[in-house]
Write a structure and sequence with these properties.
The protein is an alpha/beta fold. It folds into three domains: 45 residues, no CATH class; 124 residues, Response regulator (Rossmann fold, 3-Layer(aba) Sandwich), CATH 3.40.50; 128 residues, 3-Layer(aba) Sandwich (Rossmann fold), CATH 3.40.50. Helix content is 43%, strand content 17%. It is built from 13 helices and 13 strands. The strands form three sheets. It has a six-stranded parallel β-sheet, with helices on both faces. The chain has a five-stranded parallel β-sheet with strand order 7-6-8-9-10, sandwiched between helices. Helix 11 links the parallel strand 8 and strand 9. Helix 8 packs parallel to helix 9. The chain is elongated, with a radius of gyration of 26 Å.
Amino acid sequence: MRKTPVQPRERVSLATVAASAGVSIATVSRIVNGDTGRASRETVARVRQAVEALGYRPNQLGRALKHGRSRVVAMLAPNLDNPMMATIAASTEAALRDAGYVMILCDTHDRADLQDEYLEAMRSQVVEGTVMVASVASPGLARFVEEGGPVVFVVRRNPCGTGGPFLGIDNIGAGGHVAEFFLRRGITEAGVLYPTQGSSVTRERCEGFCARLAGLASVVRGEAPGLSHPEVGYQAARAMAAGSPWPRGIMCVSDQIAYGAYRFTREAGIRVPDECLIVGVDGNDLNQWLAPWLTSLKVPYREFGGHVVKMLSQIWSGERPDDRILPYSLADEPAALPPAAGCRDGMPA
């Protein structure tokens, strides 16, 4: 039996409700917006009955323009196929929902032009706040920050300079923490794998690792271009093997780079972790199921959402929130505390 297509229901207007209730449009507008003081109880009941019967729904964009509140927050993040980006997005969406907000999620694919397109598009959505996850420098972002819009930078600091509170970890300290892990195990021949066109995050992790091992261990670097971290890990490991003896321990600046490096070690016949200890950064929850060979420095991405909401709430209240540097930890170790006051990224301010 062929079904008759369902026609979309036309939006019920204030005028339709007013005609049904026998009152003016202005009276309906006041009542649906919560102002019932100037109408009798009978009139309020009649209007509400008409609203329910007709299925009237207020125009949220119009209400946002009128009252300056949309209860919508935008998140711009790159490469949502990265599990860590997805975890941050899920954590933030849940925290915003608990606080009574709706989140719009946009994947910028690490492109400055697309990031600016989304920033401009969010203006028309009258968003109350913007969460920039691992953002890149762009003209639109620079203008946005200069205009003073409510914004929180997550994972990477504002790439356009100053302005906007930051939520993340001490990446230089994280790299140094992995180096300490190697030194405690007597590893003095180490390697580090990272992307050639990396972000400030990957550069700082590499910098902290090498700085801590300076004069204490030999460090071989392996790098490769590309946006796919598993591919970077594979190609960087192959390049490192071609030029130097294989190290006893390798730090990968992300877990996904470690996955690529592990594939190379399997093909090269290098036993992990017996012959080479591989340490990643992120602490993907799937590691215990898919990568038991990997030691990973765990970043508390699932806690990011609550901090984002608190920081936005401070901004909405007229306060200027401080940066929030969260702790990290390796397996069977206590969480490393954030740097002391007066320090930035583990270095003196």
